[in-house]
Design goal:
Layout (H helix, E strand, L loop, with lengths): L2 H5 L3 H7 L5 E8 L2 H11 L3 E6 L7 E7 L2 E8 L2 H5 L5 E7 L3 H10 L3 E9 L3 E7 L5 E7 L17 E8 L3 H12 L2 E7 L5 E7 L2 E8 L8 E10 H10 L3 E9 L3 E7 L5 E7 L2
Parallel strand pairs: 1-4, 5-8, 9-12, 13-16
Antiparallel strand pairs: 1-5, 2-3, 3-4, 6-7, 7-8, 9-13, 10-11, 11-12, 14-15, 15-16
Length: 277
């Protein structure tokens, strides 16, 4: 084998490197899959397609698409999951280069591994974990694909425009954990008075989200994902018409964007970001 062949890497591998350390997928676990699909199709504009899961349970997994690109999926909670304490909610997947190594590192850093690592045929290897403050997320090493698209541009409708962590162990400790595990960089911080600091993180000079202290009245540490919509006021009308609840907002944030936080009809928290006019 020539020296050139030794160092040459496929386009799929190089594209995969571009997303290491970033959220690459979002998954809703819910008690009513069809109703949840109808809600998010109306509110966010996704189109759902069926993908049979290749396991013995034959679970129905629905892919949520923004245009011709998959953004996330919806999975029905079964009785065993509910009996184990699972409740409707969104979880994000962070791309890692080696799921087994990353899971071990997360546990050594004070987090916990709750599921896996294990393989999803033709998709990748994943594990469900929590950070030291108790916030849950997935890590995944995707199977390289020659047709994998590059990351979407910021504020592309139907994609996720912001990631926000309410940290159960404090925003500084949480940032240090994620920075150590995934290479996140601090890009800015804002003083929120009695609520502490809002620490903005990113990768390669691109802002990805913020970390703040978990409010005392919030039952558990968690991630919130902001789905990009066009006009925020029109989106509020769609949330209300589809049976959801707007808990906070619309509220203006830096960059002239507006956000809301809400709850879908099955009780899962979600957030939207868009503009006015």
């Amino acid at each position: 084998m020539s020296d050139t062949a030794t160092v040459t890497r496929s386009d799929a591998e190089q594209d995969a490197d571009a997303t290491v350390g970033r959220f690459i997928w979002y998954e809703l676990m819910t008690t009513d899959q069809d109703a949840a699909i109808a809600f998010y199709e109306k509110v966010v504009g996704w189109k759902a397609t069926d993908q049979q899961m290749s396991d013995s349970h034959g679970a129905r997994y629905m892919i949520l698409n923004a245009g011709d690109r998959g953004v996330g999926g919806i999975l029905q909670l079964n009785q065993a999951m509910l009996d184990g304490g699972a409740r409707p909610g969104w979880l994000g997947y962070i791309h890692v280069s080696d799921t087994d190594v990353a899971a071990k590192s997360i546990a050594q850093a004070g987090g916990a591994v709750h599921l896996g690592p294990q393989d999803i045929p033709d998709v990748g290897r994943f594990a469900m974990v929590t950070d030291p403050g108790g916030a849950a997320f997935y890590i995944m090493t995707p199977t390289p694909r020659d047709d994998a698209p590059p990351p979407a541009e910021p504020m592309t409708p139907g994609h996720v425009g912001w990631h926000e962590l309410y940290a159960g162990n404090g925003e500084k400790a949480a940032f240090d954990f994620y920075s150590g595990q995934f290479g996140w960089e601090q890009m800015d911080e804002m003083d929120m008075g009695p609520m502490g600091k809002y620490r903005i993180f990113g990768l390669d000079g691109i802002q990805l989200g913020g970390i703040m202290n978990k409010p005392k009245d919030m039952p558990a540490s968690s991630w919130t994902y902001y789905f990009v919509v066009g006009d925020i006021d029109a989106a509020v009308e769609r949330v209300n018409a589809a049976g959801g609840t707007v808990r906070e907002g619309p509220m203006e944030v830096p960059g002239s964007a507006w956000i809301i936080q809400g709850t879908d009809p099955q009780g899962a928290s979600f957030a939207l970001v868009g503009f006015r006019g």
